[in-house]
Design goal:
With 262 residues, this protein is mainly alpha-helical. The chain is built from 10 helices and 3 strands.
Length: 262
Amino acid sequence: MRFLPLAAAALALPSWAAATRAPVRVPDEAAVAISYRVWQNESNGSAEGLTHWNRGEDFASLGIGHFIWYPEGEPGPFEESFPRLLAYLESRGVVLPDWLQGARPCPWPDRRAFLADFQSPRMQELRNLLTSTLHLQARFMADRLESALPRMLASTPKAQRRRIVARFQSLASQPQGLYALIDYVNFKGEGVSPTERYQGRGWGLLQVLAQMKGDPAGADAVAGFSRSARRVLARRVRNSPPERGESRWLANWRRRVQSYSA
């Protein structure tokens, strides 16, 4: 898989106070380049990896960012993003297959049914849709980051907002940091949902920014973000329900966030 180069230009970022109202703007070129790296992280850049269901999960993981799609009657704690992606594709003029229209639940009830249907015409139709809309999925992921900072600040005490904004801006102003932000927010969310907590502790982008040490700049900011992400993910595993067996994913999660500062 050949990756496009990351855009080198710094983003035009709002001041820390204005950040509650004005999101950053990720250039399309940077969004596409980063999306291919996210795809590589999630499924080694393969077409079949665009349709995935992790062992031990109760939802399908679809598209470049492995967007979550729950079956009917399985409203889990994690934010469901695939129906939002489908709505976004429709808003951009993409004609969806009939069975994907109308914000329906995932038609496969569990991982076994999903894998049994893995080479079916319906699954191939889904893969064709996902491979033909890579650029729109890239924009969808970038748009999520653009809206993330105001959402995070709304959940942050006033005394801590300046530091969150400073760290966010330091990362977003450089290509490798922008990749880290987009990948992590699509990987583990903004960290603002009350249902995405174990023992009261979240693991999203807000928690990683909050756990960084000091206000580093440049490559030091990206390295600091990577270290903080490893700590936050390790804490998630420690706090997770034992029956979920999340420790089996930790090594891959660590490798993923280590790639931010590589």
